[in-house]
Amino acid sequence: METDLPAAFIVGLLGGVHCLGMCGGIVGALTLGLPRQDAASPRFWGLQLAYNLGRIVSYMVAGMVAGGLGLLLAQAGPLQATRQVLSVIAGLFMIMMGLYLGGWWMGLARVERAGSVVWKRIEPLGRKLLPVGSPVQAFFLGMVWGWLPCGLVYSVLIWSLSAGGVLHGALLMGAFGLGTLPNLLLMGAAAGWMGGFLRKPMARKIAGGLVMVFGLMMLLQLRPDNLISG
Q: Where exactly are the structural domains of the chain?
């Protein structure tokens, strides 16, 4: 678990190339009620931080659910073998996420489309909070937006299944959420520059390749004998 948290943080950091497309619009919407000169003011940063805190809280709630479910699955069968199987699934999802980020395979887009069924019911709640005029509004908007269908988030949620429990699942998703924070904060302050940089094919391929490396490392750390013997 000690090594999982830094790894989850780095995966979130690398996933900034995906966050731009998924969350860039809402980050911009946070400043709709602010004069142009306020873009570097304490109020601006207060809204940004409140929004992202709400988003990370939603990630942690989802991580608690996934970690608890993973623990129940592990208790229902051979403990070590079940955790190993969940870790294999998490590693494979991480590799698929790397392929998706790099633009080599778009299969996870189908997973995001499947998640949009639930999102259609949640999204109107966020729309009622616009335009954002206070950190409290921004926080609740972030909590709503945390449930946006996202292949990157889903991949780390699968990882949370193998985390070993409710607390570990929440911490894993929290570390991932903190990793996405620098990109989204910079996106709010310098959306034009960040957008141009992160849309470059080379930036996406490097990030995707590094996420794939994390997935491979996760698989290489597993012990095949546990999968066989349980």
A: 4-220
Task: Indicate the residue type of 138.
Answer: A
Packing angle, helices 4-14 and 201-220, rounded to 10: 160
User: Under 8 Å CB-to-CB from 198, ≥6 apart: which residues?
Assistant: 16, 17, 20, 183, 204
Please give, one letter per residue, the 3-state secondary structure of 139-189.
Answer: HHHHHHHCCCCCHHHHHHHHHHHCCCCHHHHHHHHHHHHHHHHHHHHHHHH
Task: Name the 3-class secondary structure at 135.
Answer: helix
Question: What tens digit of pLDDT does each residue of 100-145 get?
Answer: 888 888 887 787 787 778 878 888 888 888 777 889 998 998 899 8
CA distance 8 to 90: 12
Burial pattern 34-44, b for ≥16 Cβ within 10 A else e, equals beeeeeeeeeb
124: Cβ contacts below 8 Å, ≥ 6 apart: none
Residues 6+ apart with CB under 8 A from 89: 158, 161, 162
Cis preceding linkage at 35, omega within 30: no
Hunting for tokens 């873009």 — which residue is that?
Answer: 39
Q: Give the rounded distance of the alpha carbon of 212 from its chain centre.
A: 16
pLDDT tens digit string along 10-66?
Answer: 888 887 666 655 565 566 556 555 554 455 677 778 888 898 899 999 999 999 999
